[in-house]
Design brief:
By secondary structure, this protein is α+β, with helices and mostly antiparallel strands. The chain has three helices and nine strands. The longest helix is centred in the middle third of the chain and has 22 residues. It starts with a helix and ends with a helix.
């Protein structure tokens, strides 16, 4: 476990854990189903993650894309590797769509559609909503 994982509410936000990666619910839902895909290694550069982590990434992204498609029926998906504040390799994963999508009691509009995602907009999940959305997304990924 690294600091970036805990910054994004690990373990409460944990949807699925792999050997080298975690899929976690992003507390700030810029779009419905926004996730953080975090490498568990201490690498702070994408070029420095292990070959094993790189290989596993294809399995992880296939799992999360299927789950998000089932959960929010996105039209596009964006992977943003920003790493400006949180140093370890991670992606912000944003399902993109026109209109509004609902996850349990949480509804979110993609304010940037069809252009660049608007990371400042969206719904910030309180602790109860974080657990609700995480449980819901787990149910889709475990299918």
């Amino acid at each position: 476990m690294n600091k970036t994982m805990t910054t994004f509410d690990y373990p409460n936000s944990l949807i699925k854990e792999y050997d080298h990666w975690t899929i976690q619910t992003r507390r700030k839902q810029a779009t419905a189903g926004a996730l953080v895909l975090i490498c568990k290694e201490e690498a702070t550069s994408f070029a420095n993650i292990s070959a094993e982590a790189m290989c596993e990434l294809s399995v992880v992204t296939a799992d999360l894309e299927k789950a998000l498609k089932d959960a929010v029926d996105f039209e596009k998906i964006n992977y943003l590797m920003l790493m400006m504040v949180d140093p370890h390799v991670h992606f912000h994963v944003l399902p993109r769509y026109e209109g509004v999508r609902q996850l349990g009691t949480v509804a979110a509009i993609d304010h940037g559609w069809p252009k660049t995602p608007d990371m400042a907009e969206g719904v910030t999940l309180d602790d109860k909503a974080l657990l609700e959305v995480t449980a819901l997304l787990k149910s889709f990924i475990d299918k």
